[in-house]
Amino acid sequence: MNKLLIAGWVVLTSACAVDATSRSSEATSTTQYVDIGDFGGVDQGAWYDLRDKLAGAFGGDALHQSLGLFCSVTSKLGDVHDCVWTFAGAEAVVDPKTAAIAVDSPEFQCHFGAKTTGPKLIALLSASADPLHEPLPGTNATIRDALDTCFQHPIDETPVTTPSDPAPTYVEASDYYTSATWSAKWTQAKAALTLGFEQVCGDTFCGGDYGDITSLAFVCSVTRSTGNVKECAWMFGGSYALPTKTGAEGVSQEKWRCDVPVKGTVSQLISVVNATDVPDDVLHRTLPGTTATAYDALLNCL
C-alpha cells in the first residue's frame, strides 16, 4: 500500500478514535452538563428567538400557557441531553352565593430529547416552517407529541365547577355584560393589564429566579344586579430549570394569586384601565374607591 495512503488512513482512524473516545467519555458519570444558552457554540439570540417562535406556534389556551423552554447539553460537545417546556394555566369560577373566586391552576413539565447538538437543534427548528411537528433528530417523535402526552398528566390540578344557580347573586365580570360593546371593553382592559405587567416585569418582578413570570388570568366577581366589584384576583405563573448532575432538567415552578383591591363597579374599573388621557401607566393608576394601584398589589404579592 502507498505510504501516503497508509499515513492518511492512520490519521483518519486516529481522529475517529479520538472523537469516539470523547463522546464515550461524555457519556460517563463524570460528564458535566450546562444550560444550552451557556454552551459556547450557541448563539444566545438565536436560542431566545426560537423559544419565542415555538411559543407563538403553540398559541396556548386558558389552562396551557407557555412559561419557558430549557435544555441541558454536555459541556464539551454540546450534545442535547434533556429539554423541558413548562406550562401553567388558570381557570376561575365565581361562587354565585358568596362571590368567592375559586381557581384551578394546573402546571405541566413537558420533557423531550433529541440526538443532536444544541446548535444543530436550534438551526433545525429555527428553519422549520412547522417546528412543533418537526421530527426530532434520532427519534420518531415531535415536540407536539411530547406536549400531547404531557398535557394528560397535570401537576397540582384542582378542578373547579360552577355551582348551579338559575339566579346567581354574583357572577364573573366576563359574564356580567350582555352587550358585545362592553364585553369587548372588559376584554380590552384585561389585555391592557397583561401588557402593562409585561412592560415592567423585566425591571421589577422578573428580576429574581423567575425571570419570565407570566400573567395567566385576571378575574373579578361582581354583584349581578349592580355591577359592584366584590373581589379581583390576578393569577401568575413562573418557572426556571437547571441541569442536574445526571443531565436531566431540574424544574422549579411557582404560581401566585394576587388580590387586587377595587371598591366600585366593574365599569369604573374598565374606565380607569382603558383611559387614554392619563399620563400614568396602567399599573400605577389609582384603583376605583381606593388609594392603591395594581402595582402596589403585585409588589406585596410577587
Describe, in plain words, how this protein is organized in 3D.
This protein has helices spanning 3-26, 44-58, 118-127, 143-150, 173-176, 180-201, 266-274, 294-301, and strands spanning 33-35, 65-74, 80-88, 91-94, 101-104, 107-112, 170-172, 214-223, 229-243, 249-260. With 302 residues, the chain is an alpha+beta fold. A hairpin with a 5-residue loop joins strand 2 and strand 3. The protein contains 8 helices and 10 strands. The strands form 3 sheets. A 4-stranded antiparallel beta sheet has the order 1-2-3-6. Strands 7-8-9-10 form a 4-stranded antiparallel beta sheet. Helix 2 crosses helix 3 and helix 6 packs across helix 7.
**What's the tally of helices?**
8
Shape: elongated
- Determine the N-to-C terminus distance: 74 Å
Number of strands: 10
The value of Rg in angstroms is 25 Å
Largest sheet: 4 strands, antiparallel
Q: Into which percentage range does the β-strand content fall?
A: 25-35%
Question: Which bin fits the share of residues in helices?
Answer: 25-40%
Mean residue pLDDT: 90
- Following the backbone from N to C, one meets helices and strands in this order, namely HEHEEEEEHHEHHEEEHH
Order of the strands making up the biggest sheet: 1-2-3-6
pLDDT under 50 segments (min length 5)?
Answer: 1-28
Main structural class: alpha+beta
